[in-house]
Amino acid sequence: xxxxxxxxxxxxxxxxxxxxxxxxxxxxxxxxxxxxxxxxxxxxxxxxxxxxxxxxxxxxxxxxxxxxxxxxxxxxxxxxxxxxxxxxxxxxxxxxxxxxxxxxxxxxxxxxxxxx
Length: 116
What we know:
This protein has strands at about 5, 10-15, 20-25, 35-40, 45-50, 55-60, 65-70, 75-80, 90-100, 105, 110-115. It is about 0% helix and about 55% strand. With about 120 residues, the chain is mainly β.
């Protein structure tokens, strides 16, 4: 069974930075996509960024140029560097791990709050 644990959330002011980390444990197949999604208050969960095991990335338009996803395959970790944070980035951020043609796994989430 795969488990994902996020860390690094918190309360920051607009314009500041945060770095989220996600550690995966369990039996993980080599070919996978890890990433980050977020759920703002009162809204649906949405894509933030993903990265495949070979380094292909995908970013949501609102975070392009501000957020950077990276991963350490050997340590089974994925990171999200968030710069120039805005109040609209306030959300619960979830780590995900997906295999091709599989619904994948989710972490429990970490709260990010950006004050104006």
